[in-house]
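Changelog note: in this version the structure field was regenerated for every chain. One regenerated record is shown below for reference.
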Amino acid sequence: MKLADVFLWPGHRLCQRLGLNPDADAGLIRWMFNTVFYLLIGLILVWIAVA
């Protein structure tokens, strides 16, 4: 497993769970899910660091 596969795993798994092809549309749907996932993780980490 490549490092890129590890980072893309949350979006890939969510697309599979929703019955979508994660490789369709140049991976834009997977990209959106990954962006939201890592945004939430990043915001939580920043909130913990500031608090």
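Spot check on this record: The chain is about 75% helix and 0% strand. The two ends are 36 Å apart (CA to CA).
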